[in-house]
Amino acid sequence: MKNILSITILTLLGLFMLSSCEEENELIFTAVPSEEGITFSNDFSSNYLLSAELEDNIAERFVWEEADFDAPTNVSYDLQASLSATLDSFDLVGTTTDNQIAVTIGQLLQYGAQLGLDNDPGTTAPDGSPNNKGTVYFRVRAYVGAGTGNPTEMLSDIVGLNIELVEQVPTGACDGVFALGDALVDAQWDWGTALTIPCEQEVLSAKINFTNGTFRFFTTQDDWASGLNYPYFVGEGYTIDANFEDAMDGDNNFQFVGTPGIYELFIDQNAKTITLEESGPLWLVGEATPGGWDWGGATPAFEDDVDVWMATLAFNNGTFRFFTTEGDWDSGLNYPYFIEEGYTIDANFEDGMDGDNNFRFIGTPGTYTITVDDKNKTITLN
């Protein structure tokens, strides 16, 4: 009995001592952030082009070196993003125990929306610059612990990604308008002869024969209530050509106060401008004309009607060419040009077949009126 008791006591004493040794030999580690910190290891682009059509594509994959806390412990990483360069406040993009997190184009577009960016070429920032560019800032946080309270952590330097929303390219299709008024020689206040002003690339344009009087634009044919008057465009922020003013009549129509004649009208919906360009003549230069090949004696063919130029001059047998700009030899329009444009050309003319493929007058020398009709695609002599 005594021996059994002794053995039991010794056994219990041995277990106690073994337990005490194990507790004394257990290592306690303290996580200490490395002085080298944590840095991104990928190369960033100078600019990131963003389009909603590609929102699921990866814009950038953030990669960093593993953080060293001088302890055998799991490290977690947070990728943070902010509109502030100091990251005073930020969004948590994602958390991982890996060393990379991808950011999609769609995510960057969301930050672009928070910055007030858009892809409309017609909008601008307060300083007048395009309203489609901005910067989003990122950093990575490495830490051990629960992630709350006061865990041991390291923060990377902040990097800024320059983003640019791809602006919409006009499709070319846009709504035209109609124009009526006694200032419009070919329209008057008659829906049966209303002028149609087509639109392309957000610019409405048409050649119009103006005289002093009033007129108005309309969005819907035969609908007087669809009118757009002078104050409407002023209210929309348009700069309006000095040839126009507010008629101050019952409808506040446009009043044309310039020199009567044919002009090209431009309504630029992007630039918010309404402008006029006066029609210029075609110039006839060549040995077949009275002035020869000398700009000092060039004969002007004036636009008598919209897209119809006329001139009366004495023709000799020889060659000549049309020019759109006085004094500019590079602005010439030769015989093949009009053929390619679908013109029917008077039999008194033929291709000179010289180095410039000029017109050659082969008729009976004398005084004629030449008409270049771009509407009906004809060149005639009378």
Explain the overall architecture.
The protein has helices at residues 2-25, 105-114, 230-235, 335-340; strands at residues 48-50, 58-63, 76-82, 91-96, 100-104, 133-144, 152-155, 159-165, 177-180, 195-197, 199-200, 203-210, 213-218, 227-228, 239-240, 244-246, 254-256, 261-268, 273-278, 282-285, 299-305, 308-315, 318-323, 332-333, 344-345, 349-351, 359-361, 366-373, 378-381. It is mostly beta strands. It has three domains: 48-165, Immunoglobulin-like; 178-278, Immunoglobulin-like, CATH 2.60.40; 282-381, Immunoglobulin-like. Strands 20, 21, 22, 23, 24, 25, 26, 27, 28 and 29 form a ten-stranded mixed β-sheet that branches. Strands 1, 3, 4, 6, 7 and 8 form a six-stranded mixed β-sheet that branches. Strands 9, 10, 13, 14, 16 and 17 form a six-stranded antiparallel β-sheet that branches. The longest helix has 24 residues, at 2-25. The N and C termini lie far apart (150 Å). Residues 1-31 have low confidence and may be disordered.
